[in-house]
Amino acid sequence: MSALTLRVTEITPLSPLVTRFRFEHPEGAGLPLFSGGAHVVVEMPDAGVLRRNAYSLISDPLDGSGYEIAVRREDGGRGGSRFLHTKVSVGDLLRVNLPVNLFALDLRAKKQLMIAGGIGITPFLAQLKQLARLQMPFELHYAARSRAEAAGIALLPDLPQIHVHISDEGNRMDLGAILSGQPLGTHVYTCGPEGLIAAVDETAARLGWPKGALHSEAFLAPPPGAPFTVTLKSGREIEVGAHQSLLEALEAAEVAVDWSCRGGACGRCETGVSACHGRIEHHDHWLSDEEKASQTKIMPCVSRFVGETLTLDL
Amino acid sequence: MPRTEFSPSIMSRPVYAPLKAQGAAPALMLAEAEGAEAILELAAADPSVMDRAHLIFIPGGTGFGPRLAALRARLYHEAPSYPAALERYRKALLDAHMGTQLYLAGTEGLIGQASAEALAAGLPADAIQAEHRGSLARRMQCVHCKGVTEGVTTDPFTCSHCGLTLFVRDHFSRRLGAFQGVCVDAETPGVTPAVKEIKA
Questions:
Q1: How many structural domains comprise chain B?
Q2: Residues of B in contact with A213 (CB under 8 A)
Q3: Residue of B97, B121, B126 with shortest CB distance to A212
Q4: B32 and B126 in one domain?
Q5: How many angstroms separate the CA atoms of B106 and B30, rounded?
Q6: What is the domain-level CATH number for residue B99?
Q7: Which of A96, B42, B72, B73 could form a disulfide with B53 if both were Cys (CB 3.0 to 4.6 A apart)?
Q8: How close is the nearest chain A Cα to the Cα of B28, in Å?
Q9: Are residues B145 and B110 in the same domain?
Q10: Which residue of A has its CA nearest to B122?
Q11: Which of A85, A84, A94, A83 is nearest to A23 (CA)?
Q12: Which residue of A has its CA nearest to B101?
């Protein structure tokens, strides 16, 4: 993986839980440009464990002077966001992997309709800057529980195409109304909790939207679970801890696995399974239902195993 | 006339499935000649498909008009030709919203042109259904002069614009809604294969 070592130059609280981090090249060199919706994987050496989390870039895709991300502190999470919030200071150097985009705008669309829930606003912040340059019609709906939690408000331009829905204020998002009456050629992008993505898919299907016009992105944090053991082709056994992903365990054992999003979305770390006596707990959005049922492939970034033996093609 | 079954060919060659009702969603329907039978079968399978349908029919010498009118589409209109129907069809696409289903039935010339028009208007390809009925005539573009010859029934045929003798390829342009015709005697001017009728 090609990574850059970048300096943290600004840390700005946006809400009680969400903080913006800005990274710049230590010698002031320009960074590779990206496209709206791209993410970077930030490497966090935390007490002997190397965590790598994916965060959507929120800065202007055509501004190579720095990369900005907005991170929500998840105190119940595995520690990546807590590390950034509590251990990182201005001036620190962190390894940041080059941007990858799994949630790009389809530029053949006649109109872009963006639906964000909570921290899911982040990829759209960069896309809005891209759309302003392209002068392309768009509409954005941003739903949050309360105004205090809606960290994105401070970063959103004041435009009539941007609609903020705060459920605490009785202004819930009405997906049926949003998805009705959109002109031909509209594409929908949803980023946020799984429930929101499912609700958009369900409402769109009911209104006759074809699947090709629907896009979504949800990064999954690797879920914790019971420790388990996997076997490699060589017969070597690797132990996976309760709060460790299979990918992290393989990396700690210096077994080479290709990866990109580390959140079950991109498919890069797909690994063949040659023998499975037990049940793979698939948590990814990549494998099809048939592939999951066949138990012949696993996405080590998010999926786990329960049972006797799991032999990987590694 | 029943639905046409085409023999397998290259990826580029469009394939057509029977029209399948998507319920009472807003619908735009365009049928030509024997294509009327596909719409009659569609409405028989699910009458609700006509509730919010705008049906445009090009009779092409057939007498299906009264039976289609009796389906009680929200709007029903007959036009003498595709060019005559085009302004109405374009306006219907312009006013349509996401969720609208497009049903096409007729020859490849009609299906190809109407699909290209709908795609250009922003309708996603997966919202378009087309069923082939009637003549096997093709709409052919000459790759040399770019002129389009309608209603081609033989292979090779003479380009109605530049006069070259053209081989009928299965290579189809979705943007133009036409198959590609390529000079058949470029290496040996005047020596052309025997003329055959185009088959399914």
A1: 2
A2: 98, 124
A3: B126
A4: yes
A5: 8
A6: 3.40.50.80
A7: B73
A8: 13
A9: no
A10: A185
A11: A94
A12: A208
Q: Hey, how many other C-beta atoms are within 10 angstroms of the C-beta on B68?
A: 22
Domains, chain A? 3-101 (2.40.30.10), 111-218 (3.40.50.80), 228-312 (3.10.20.30)
Q: Are residues B115 and B69 in the same domain?
A: yes
**B132, B108 in Cβ contact below 8 A?**
yes
Give me the interface pTM, i.e. the ipTM: 0.82
Mean pLDDT throughout B80-84? Answer: 96
Residues 6+ apart with CB under 8 A from B70: none
Closest Cα in chain A, distance from residue B125 (Å): 8
Determine, for residues A185 and B121 on separate chains, whether the beta-carbon distance falls below 8 Å: yes
- Determine, yes or no, domain membership for B1: no
To test the contact with chain B by mutation, choose from A106, A182, A184, A211 the residue with the greatest count of B C-beta atoms within 10 A, namely A184
Q: How far apart are CA B162 and CA B164, in angstroms?
A: 6
Closest CA of chain B from A180, distance in Å: 8
Question: Which of B97, B98, B100, B115 to mutate to test binding with chain A, by most A CBs within 10 Å of its CB?
Answer: B98
Within a domain: B35: yes
Domain that holds residue B119: 27-132
The helix (run of H) or strand (run of E) holding residue A61 is none
CB contact (8 A) between residue B122 and residue A179:
no
The whole-angstrom separation of Cα B140 and Cα B144 is: 12
Three-class SS state of A45: strand
Interface of B with A in 96-155 (CB under 8 A): 96-101, 121-127
Q: Are residues B121 and B149 in the same domain?
A: no
Among B79, A281, A309, A187, residue whose Cα is nearest residue A298? A281
pLDDT in tens, chain A (314 residues): 589 999 999 999 999 999 999 999 999 999 999 999 999 999 998 877 888 889 999 999 999 999 999 999 988 777 788 999 999 999 999 999 999 999 999 999 999 999 999 999 999 999 999 999 999 999 999 999 999 889 889 899 999 999 999 999 988 899 999 999 999 999 999 999 989 999 999 999 999 999 999 999 886 778 888 999 999 999 999 999 988 899 999 998 999 999 988 888 889 999 999 999 999 999 998 999 999 999 999 999 999 999 999 999 99
Are residues B34 and B98 both part of a single domain?
yes
What tens digit of pLDDT does each residue of B150-166 get?
Answer: 999 999 999 999 999 99
| B31 and B62 inside one domain | yes
Co-location of B121 and B143 in the same domain: no
Nearest to A110 among B26, B122, B127 (CB): B122
**How close, in Å, is residue A198 to chain B by CA atoms?**
18
Tokens representing residue B47 in the block: 């009458």
Q: Is B11 inside a domain boundary?
A: no
* Domain closes at, from B132, B159, B180: B132
- Three-state DSSP class for residue B30: strand
Q: Is residue B17 part of a domain?
A: no
The reply to whether B70 and B125 lie within a common domain is: yes
